[in-house]
Each structure stands twice: as structure tokens, then as C-alpha cells.
Amino acid sequence: MNFNSIKAIYKFEMARALRTIMQSILAPVLSTSLYFIVFGAAIGTKISTIDNVSYGAFIVPGLIMLSIMTTSVNFAAFGIYLPKYNGSIFEIMSAPISAYEIVIGYAGAAVSKSLLISVLILFTSTIFVDFYIKHPLLMLFLLILISITFSLFGFIVGIWATNFEKLQLIPLLIITPLVFLGGSFYSVEMLPELWQFVSKFNPIFYVINGFRWSFFGTADIAIITSLSFITIFLLICLIIIGLIFKTGYRIKG
Amino acid sequence: MISIKNVTKVYSNNFYALSNISLDIKRGEIFALLGPNGAGKTTLISCICGLIKQTKGLIKVSNFDTLKDYRKTRSLIGLVPQEFPLDSYESVLNTVNFSRGLFGLKPDDKYIKNVIQSLKLWDKKNSSIITLSGGMKRRVLIAKALSHNPKILFLDEPTSGVDIQLRKEMWDMILQLKQSGVTVILTTHYIKEAETIADRIGIIDKGELILVENKENLINKFGNKSIIIEFGKKIYEIPDKIKDFDCFITNDNLCLVIKKLKNNQDINITNVIKIISKLKIPVIDIKTEESSLEDIFLDIISERVKGEL
Questions:
Q1: How much is the ipTM here?
Q2: Cα–Cα distance measured from residue B256 to residue B248, given in angstroms and rounded to the nearest whole number
Q3: Three-state SS for B89?
Q4: Which site among B46, B93, B102, B129 would you substitute to test the A interface, given the most A Cβ atoms closer than 10 Å to its Cβ?
Q5: What is the mean pLDDT of residues A79-95?
Q6: Nearest-neighbour CA in chain B from A87: distance (Å)
Q7: Contact, B196 vs B219, CB < 8 A?
Q8: Which of B220, B239, B269 finishes a domain?
């Protein structure tokens, strides 16, 4: 394992985030805090408890998931897309570094940044709502696992994208709607039966509910189902990345 | 140092970017790869550096296979690309340090300082790339390529877009690298560059390596020498005794140009002067001109276009 190379990519990516700290770190924390004010403090007081959890507390895991999924995808996608865009990927492809070391460097930086944002949101949320974490270790494990999975997915998006529009297409038009419709702000039991059925085809629904279970010990589905979905998604991402490097798809001639 | 055996690169549209290229590059030499646009120069470099995988053939660097032992071969190579693929908002020092780390080496502030200083960039070490001139960006790319102390340096059009002063400084730097034992392979459109610094020349066209020669041998073998006689009044006919030679009268009818191969002993200036003096036409000047590498290159390529080679 070429640790110096991984460290170089990781440090370079983290330095980029620090250079743009307002946009990359503070902006997601601020926008999620606004959700707490609007949905938690304002509208939330008018909504009754869900599974004995106040509405304000109920949306905390959902909002953290909204943040971690979108930031993980965005950071990893931008991380690998920018060298492709400005041509500096030649240096990475001509360096004595393996495909998986490249992935660890870029995805590792994306995971670190999105975890930092999630932790900041978690602490910020305590200002607005009272909540508890029933299974903190599981919560932490899921947070890291989901961040890794979505960072790998973002890496695939960054390789696939041939322009900035495509780079934004999946995070904005697929991930965000699926997170909103995956039960970030509600329990599926609050929906009509038809929409409860439709929700079960949304993979993000399983991710959010697993994470919510780690907070309150209760969710719309069993934790094991959730874990299975996340693991399968992680494996699919790893297989696709393996194929990308084997075939040189959009990175090698 | 580099051994290329029967390398072919075919793209999915059946375009042969490289056709059965074989070439050996010796340790410590400066090898210039010349060729028109799209000839395959960059493709060949990319195959050696691992940016492109060849369709067929074997490339070895220091006896290591570039595909199987890619970590060993790539750690020996530094590459300066043709364009400016740099992160615009990164500082010079950070981007050079990044390159060293990427090649698996621990930070070495002293070495990096030496590299940046030798390229006259030390006063710009904290400047963002975006604020640098084209020549400075080119030097940053060289600093990045040298950051891991490579044994082989590829320079793809190293002096395109740089001024004369900097170009000469870069040539000096390349010669210094050669003295320190670095093997340098450069592609260039600027043939004077190859003529000035290269030890050997390779000419590539349409994916085929059509010629590899020692620079002096190439000039001797393919070069021409011309004798130019400038008259004091217009002439309209080539003198009889000269007609057998390859010669012509210039458009202004004031000069007679006699072309000869360098090793052709039949024509020499003494004989020409004897013949001309008998014509009783006033002669203002007699001078000789030798083919440059550029002339030779253009002759070879144009003959190839005509299908004569």
C-alpha cells in the first residue's frame, strides 16, 4: 500500500475544502439549521409526536442523512471530476499508485468532510431540539458506512460526468428528491397506503430508517433490512469502481 | 533505459495511432521525437508513462514491464505535458509538494526548494498558479515532474509559448539534467530545439517511426549544401558547364543556386568559381548554405507524403 500517495491526495483534497470553507463546510451546516428552524421549531410544534418522539427530534436523523448523502456524493464527485476537467488527472494516472489507492485518497477526503459537516449539524441541532441517541455506537457506525458508500457513489458520478451539468444531475435530480421522499421529514405510516407501497421502492428510505432506528430504537423498517441495503449498495459501488479502473472508462485512452 | 518492442495502439474507431513501433532509448541521452501534428508523439509518450495502454507490444523501462511493474517504471519517470493541466488556485509550493507525495515519497523541503529555485520560481512559491505567466506555468510543470527525482524525463513540447530567453534557459537546464544522468525524451515542433540539444532524433509520422538517427549522422546523410552566387547583373540562362548540376536561377534573376549533397565531391567551390569567372559576368558574392534539421525534417515528411520514401 502506497500510503504517501494516498496521504498526498487526501491532504490536497482537504486543503481545497479549507480554501473554500464557507461554501463547502459552513453553507451545508447553515442550510440544515434553517430546516430545524422551519420544520422543527415552527411547523414541528403543530405536529404531534411520531412513535413517542417529538417531530423536531424525529427529523434530526433525516436531516443528517440529507446532508451526509448529498455532501458525500458532491465532494467525491467534484474531487475526481476537477482533475479530469483541468487535465491534472494525467499526473495521478502516471503516478505509481493503484486504482484502489486513488479511490481511498479521494473517497477518504470526501468521507472526512461529510462526517465533519454531519457532526457539526448534530451539535447544531441540539440548539433547536431536545433528542437522545439510543444506540450511539451504531449511529456512528452507520454514519461512517453511509458516508463511505455515498462517497464511492460520488466517485462514480465524477468519473461518469463529462461536464458540470452532468456532475450536478445525480445529486440534485436523483439523490435529493429520493432523500426527501425517503422519510426524512415524516414516517411512511403518515402516507396513504399507495404511497407507503411506492416508498418501499426508494432505496434511500431504507438508509434513513436504519439511521433513525439507531437514534430512537424505532423506525418504519427493521434495522437488519436497512443494513443489508446499505451493504449491497456499497458492494455495487465497489464493483462498478473496479470495472471503471479495469476498463479505463473515461479516464484512460 | 527504455525498450519499446512492436508497440501498436489502435483506438475503437480502428484508427492506428501507433503502428508497430520499436525503439531503444539509451541511458543519459537526449532523444528528440519529431513529427507533424497527430503523428503519434504524445500517444507514444502516454503509452510509456501509463496514461494509455498499448493494444499490442511491450514497453520496458529499466528492464521493468510498464504494465506489470507499473509502480517501478512510473517511479522512474517524470512527465511534463504539452498543456497546462494545473489546479489554478493552488500555490506553487503546494502543487510541487503534492506531486512528490503522489509519487510515494516523503516530504523533502530542501530538495523541493532546490528544484523550485533552479527553475527561478522560489519568489513565486506562495503564489496561486492562476497569477503566473505561461512561461512560469511551464516551469511549474517541470518542477512537478522533477519533484520525485526521476531518472527519465519526458518533455512534451517543453518550450512552446515561452520567450527566447526562457527557451535558452530551459535548454541549459535540460543539458544540466543530462549531465546529472537523467535520460531526456522530448517532443517538439521547434526543430531548432532538437538540433541544439538532442543526441539522437526519431521522426514519427502517421503512427510509424520512420527514422531514428544520431543527430550528426542525420544531417550528414540527408542534409544538402547549396552554393549561392550573386551576380552584378541579371542572368537568364544557366551556364552550360553547370547545367548538369542540380541548380536554378532565383526569381529576381540575380542569383544562381547550386544544390549538392554534402558528400558529393564532384561539386566544389573552386570548380564553380573557375566556371563562373569565364562567364565574364560581374560576381558580387559567393556563399554557401547548409540544410538545417528543419529542412531535413520537411524534406523527409514531404517525400513521404509523395510516397517516395
A1: 0.80
A2: 6
A3: coil
A4: B102
A5: 89
A6: 5
A7: no
A8: B220
